[in-house]
Amino acid sequence: MILVADSGSTKTDWCLIDDNSENKFFETKGFNPYLNTEKEITEELISTLISQLSNTKITNIYFYGAGCANEKLCSIVEFALIEVFPESQIQVEHDLLGAARALCQNEAGIAVILGTGSNSCVYDGKNIIQHIPALGYTLGDEGAGSQIGKQLLKAYLHQQLPKELNDSFQEQYNSNFSEVMETIYKKPFPNRYMSSFCPFVSQNISNPFCKALVKRCFEDFFVTYISKYDNIQSYTFNCVGSIGYYFKDILKEVALQFGIKIGTIVQKPMDGLIKYHTKN
Fold it and tell me: Minimal CA–CA distance to 99: which of 233, 252, 265, 221?
């Protein structure tokens, strides 16, 4: 049987694909080799995943994870999986390759992640052939939830929100300057905090201010990344992630501005990964 994992820093979605295509789904904590040690990953796998698998024999494991950006980082996750599944064939890859396989299968295309953070690549149907590095929420994350939330917070604190939005925001969050500054600069995961304001933007997307804000962030993303790739008009544009999914109408509008054909836009990659590994 095949075990497929899509892992972020917060949680990991697992799917057990058996020979009869009766798939079973599980969830554990997220594993990011920038944040977690091999020991921590091993302990979590033993305490939460093994019991759910009920002694099922796993032949192959395909793990796609945030932070699995090079061989050294991948090995942290790989060695933990080997410890727990010593008889399985294990492949650990970056979540961007997982997104590309899920979205494009064996066809060439532009593959994008737009969630709390953002990332992108050009995929030839087998491998990533072009990639401009994502720089995280401090230097990058254009088009991501962290950027959209950041721009909303700036407008709120600078008193630039239209009155109806300002009143609604204040009523919903009751935030003030000191609270925002302390959370962003003194507490962990400021990117998640900034991204947490995206539901407010979504709720008010009919307001011209919110629509323009999201559109600017997507345009930043296209200018910074997508437009730098070669022959972009020859590929479809494909996206996975909650931000791309919930704001897909605006995302499609911006893609068309750049002359790019729209492909697949989904919230999560697991269905596509199941299809890919069943077929391949």
Answer: 265
CA distance 181 to 183: 6
**pLDDT band for position 258 (cuts 50, 70, 90):** very high
Give me the pLDDT at residue 19, please. Answer: 67
Please tell me whether residue 250 adopts helix, strand or coil conformation.
Answer: helix
CATH 1.10.3720.10 fits 2-87, yes or no: no
| Whole-number pLDDT of residue 91 | 94
d(C-alpha 161, C-alpha 171), whole Å: 14
Per-domain residue ranges of the chain:
2-87, 104-268
Q: What is the mean pLDDT of residues 148-175?
A: 91
Phi-psi region of 196 (alpha: psi -120 to 50; beta: other; left: phi over 0): alpha
Could you report the per-residue pLDDT of 22-49, keeping only the tens digit for each?
Answer: 788 988 888 888 878 899 999 989 988 8
**Edge-to-edge order in the sheet of strand 109-114:** 128-130, 118-123, 109-114, 236-240, 261-266
CA 176 from chain centre, in angstroms, equals 29
216 contacts 181 by C-beta, under 8 angstroms: no
CATH code for the part of the protein at 104-268: 3.30.420.40
